[in-house]
Automatic annotation (TrEMBL):
GO terms for molecular function: 3'-nucleotidase activity; 5'-nucleotidase activity; exopolyphosphatase activity; metal ion binding; nucleotide binding. It is found in: Cytoplasm. GO terms for cellular component: cytoplasm. Residues 3-189 form the Survival protein SurE-like phosphatase/nucleotidase domain. Its EC number is 3.1.3.5. A divalent metal cation binds at residues 8-9, 39, 97. The keyword Metal-binding applies. InterPro entries: SurE (IPR030048), SurE-like_Pase/nucleotidase (IPR002828), SurE-like_sf (IPR036523). It comes from the Bacteria. It comes from Zhenpiania hominis. Binds 1 divalent metal cation per subunit. This is 5'-nucleotidase SurE. Keywords: Cytoplasm, Hydrolase, Metal-binding, Nucleotide-binding.
Amino acid sequence: MNILVTNDDGIEASGIRNLVKALSQTAEIYVCAPHTQRSASGHGITVGKPIEVEETDFEHAVKAYATTGTPADCVKIGTKILNDQGIKIDMVFSGINLGGNLGTDTLYSGTVSAAIEGSLCGIPSVAVSVNSHKASHFELACDLALGACRNGFSKMSARTVLNINTPDLPKEEIKGVKYTRLGMREYKEWFRPKTGENGKTQYWYEGNPVVYEGLPDDIDVISMQDGYASITPLHYDLTDYELVDEIKKWRLAE
């Protein structure tokens, strides 16, 4: 099996190093990742300017490329470069992200978007995150990634993206794994004003996650709050099927 690994924290990040090492136990690993931090880049792709690609050394990987592109770019370019060399990618893994990708945050996430790009390319894909921007406990995240590779691949369609999130705790302190759906991921947020060196006002986005009470435990955000890892199946079809027939009655075209 050939696996392409990418991320949005950059090719030097600790998360991607741990993920590549783990997956190399069961597959040939190829890396194509941003040369620098590209968090919260969503599903953006580079249009109207070139993307630089540089081959680099990466422990436990057969080949690795650092690019100036977005996470989604890395999947598109990585699969193209490798395909031209006669290497067919069987799965795409994105991560391990430093910080959770839960609920509605998945819409902003470069990590999840890279996995969805794999799906758009017709490849079963997995996003993996640890719920701390200073994450240091990758054991369970790596184990679940290996499980997705070994046990999930034969069952996943190209439309499937698995979104894995784990608490930043030692494996033995995590309560278990829940199979979940997306929930809301809200923040007590604000923009902090600051005067820049040029004298212009800058605004820095900050916020703390809302802690929820009384919500079902099959929601990914609640699972994480309660000390569990979560695995959520995703797909890129955003259609609200319940409304397709209903909006015909709204006479919007008249």
